[in-house]
Amino acid sequence: MKSLLKKISLLFLLAASIACNHSENKEIAKATLSYPITKKGDVTDNYFGTQVADPYRWLENDTSAETAQWVKAENEVTQNYLSQIPFRSKIKERLSQLFNYPRCTAPIKKKNKLFFQKNEGLQNQSVLYMQDGINGTAKVLLDPNSLSADGTTTIASFDVSNDGKYLAYVIAKGGSDWNEIFVLDLESGKQLADHLEWVKFTDIAWQADGFYYSCYDAPQKGQELSGKNQFHKVKYHKLKTLQANDQLIYSNPDKPLRYHSAQVTDDEQFLIIYASEATDGTELYYKNLKKGDKNFTQLTHGFEYEFGVADNNDNSFFVRTNFKAPNWKLIQIDLKNSDEKNWKDVIPEQKNVMTGVHRMADKFVVTRMQDASAKAFVYNMNGQQEKEIALPAIGDLTAFNATAEDTIAFYSYVSFTFPTTVYEYHINSNQSKKYAEIKLNFNPDDYETTQVFYPSKDGTKIPLFLTYKKGLKLDGTAPTLLYGYGGFNISVTPAFKAERMLLLEQGGVFASANMRGGGEYGEDWHKAGTQLNKQNVFDDFIAAAEYLIKEKYTSSEHLIISGRSNGGLLIGAVTNQRPDLFRVALPAVGVMDMLRFQKFTVGWGWVGDYGSSDDSVQFASLYKFSPLHTIKDNANYPAIMVTTADHDDRVVPAHSFKYIATLQEKYKGANPALIRIESMAGHGSGKPISKIIDEEGDIWSFVFYNLGISY
Question: How far, in Å, CA of 608 to CA of 488, rounded?
């Protein structure tokens, strides 16, 4: 291992043991960082006459012994650094307390039985339960904690057959997007022999004595976590048969880079297929199962708009869509007269984005987003608004589970300072009540959330949520975490993260920016942060940091920035563009190589948002902000800790590997540039609580240490 290390004597002075008012700094450690030596190859690509070196291309081979040795060496450096931090164990102890509260999902009702997942507090994975009616006794259906010794197997999703006899559940192992499907007999509680493999990006759509699902062919050995995924298929699995006998329902061999998913209407009359080429934009196909249609009818054409069938009535679909309506609307399509000119607006587009439509009794419950916070309304079937559902203050409605037959629904609501809470909603009285109380290890009433609007570089007003302890003094000294995403039409709505309480308890501020590229204000807002407009996202984030400093919430010496996935790209890009503005940067599972992302797993699906280096104009744009390619060798970077995982087959860890290798090569300053690589974990979903606490403990130890705060 010594031969892998080169001595880079980076003496750094880390101050800590500060009182809560940050008035006294004391030296606590001096250390020498020695980064692993990363060999350089001579790979160079020619992009339309521009020669681009890629010396760390070999790190893309995630199964090689050489890459494994490099990963081990990097983790050793990181863990040696973190082991110096005297309060690291205290932080992990407090995190264990903060995570130790009961939580459950909003129940789903089938045949008077409720199905939900619940965690008592520190269970690695939530347990699946079934309960007879609202007041029945819940019993365990499946405990995924028994499926793996390290708690890395999780229930990714489940669905119950329409007759209430069977439950199909999807499991994920080690954080990978590759899934497996199993089936439970709900009467006997026994698992059937059915076992489906190589399932990915799937729904379960029950019909008759089986279900539809989406899958790929088995990948080549050694390419499971990095090879390009192509030829997504929809198949039908009949219960108590082998997967090898499953019927191919839909595929498109001429278009290998498409996603396909299936939906069956509640009355099992229609099978609907959605096709997409990116993360948004759909074509819709259907067949009438009761009439025995052999072929699909294409209902919409092209991928400019999205369509989602919310309900059906006789021979028509109620469809939520952004078709010529950037803020979305509900339309009715008569399948006998399905030409676009005959589509009927049921609930027209409004100023606030329509985020969901749910059938309940003989009504539609419509959820909307007003400045990134949730609203909910009840409409009749003719599209007339009847009432608003009273929701708690600034927050997000994360699930609304109802059936067309019932007058009672369950929904989940969350805020920045209170965890996801399940409510029982009665539509006749328009009243909600908590379905289950939550006991916490802190007092949410000690904190408050406000929303401000700040100008970006071009003058566009950007919303910013601010959460902090009541009585905060604006003197520029509060440690502040600025979080952002800004892409893929994803709205950054209020959410609770137990680990953020560490910052708030220390008198810090959590700031969440609703930048362009997201869906907070509809499709126009989304498009304003995509492809050739991507720099708008970075400008919005930088402007948020400047606002926080100008208004004396914090200073550049107290400012932490964080983002995951597309948000990891964000952090990498803005750190390169404005390294002077931040004290600590935390890019997690980020898309760092903007010239090659489309070559791995489902990266091709992101071209709609990013553009592609295969196009000369888009290449020029990507090359200007790609985190890997814009690292400077003369900049004073903030303290950086990259996080990724070995089973991330969505944003493959090679992005982070190549980025940190380049940063460690070029950066000559005193701040640490580290990477933490988790094992048996993926892009984030399904990670066991024990690993979350361990990772977050390391992250926040790194943060406080480099801010000079003694926890």
Answer: 9
The single residue listed with the structure tokens 């750094």 is 12
Distance CA 572, CA 680 (A): 25
Q: Are 376 and 388 a contacting pair, CB within 8 Å?
A: yes
Whether 30 shows a pLDDT value over 90: the answer reads no
DSSP string, 548-597: HHHTTS--GGGEEEEEETHHHHHHHHHHHH-GGG-SEEEEES----TTTG
Q: Dump pLDDT digits (tens) for 523-556.
A: 999 999 999 999 999 999 999 999 999 999 999 9
* Band (224; pLDDT cuts 50, 70, 90): very high
Distance CA 473, CA 68 (A): 48
Assign 40 a pLDDT band (cuts: 50, 70, 90).
Answer: very high
Selection from 26, 6, 28 nearest residue 87 by Cα: 28
Q: Which residues pair with 483 in a beta bridge?
A: 512, 562
CA distance 342 to 335: 10
What average pLDDT does the chain have? 94
Long-range pairs, 135-144, Cβ under 8 A, ≥24: 138/114, 141/115, 141/167, 141/184, 141/186, 141/189, 142/169, 142/184, 144/171
List, for residues 657-681, the tens digit of each pLDDT value.
999 999 999 999 999 999 999 998 8
Mean pLDDT to the nearest integer, 333-347: 97
Tokens of 655: 């992005």
pLDDT of residue 6: 33
Indicate if 655 belongs to the active site: no
CATH number assigned to the domain covering 445-703: 3.40.50.1820
- The band of 32, judged by pLDDT with boundaries at 50, 70 and 90, is low
Vertex 676, ends 673 and 677: CA angle to 5°? 135
Calpha distance 560→465 (Å, rounded): 16
> Which amino acid does the sequence have at 7?
K
Catalytic residue among 565, 656, 701, 710: 565
Annotation says 683 is catalytic: yes
Q: Which is nearest to 41 in space by CA: 30, 55, 54, 51?
A: 55
The 10s digit of each residue's pLDDT in 592-644 is 999 999 999 999 999 999 999 999 999 999 999 999 999 999 999 999 999 99
> How confident is the model over 652-658, as a mean pLDDT?
97
Residue whose token pair is 């919005």: 540
Catalytic pick from 261, 683, 701, 710? 683
Give percent of the chain with pLDDT exceeding 90.
93
Rounded Cα gap, residues 284 and 338, in angstroms? 12
Query: How much of the chain, in percent, has pLDDT values that exceed 70?
Result: 95
For the entire predicted model, the pTM comes to 0.93
Domain boundaries, the chain: 353-440, 445-703
- Tell me which DSSP letter residue 63 carries: T
- Contacts of residue 400, defined as CB under 8 A and 6 or more positions apart, other chains included, come to 106, 356, 358, 365, 367, 376, 409, 410, 411
* Coil vs helix vs strand at 690: helix
Q: Cα–Cα distance between 36 and 42 in angstroms, integer?
A: 19
Helix (H, G, I), strand (E, B) or coil at 508: coil
Rounded CA separation 523/279 (Å): 13
Q: 243-265 burial string, b = 16+ CB within 10 Å, else e?
A: beebeebbeeeeeebbbbbbbbb
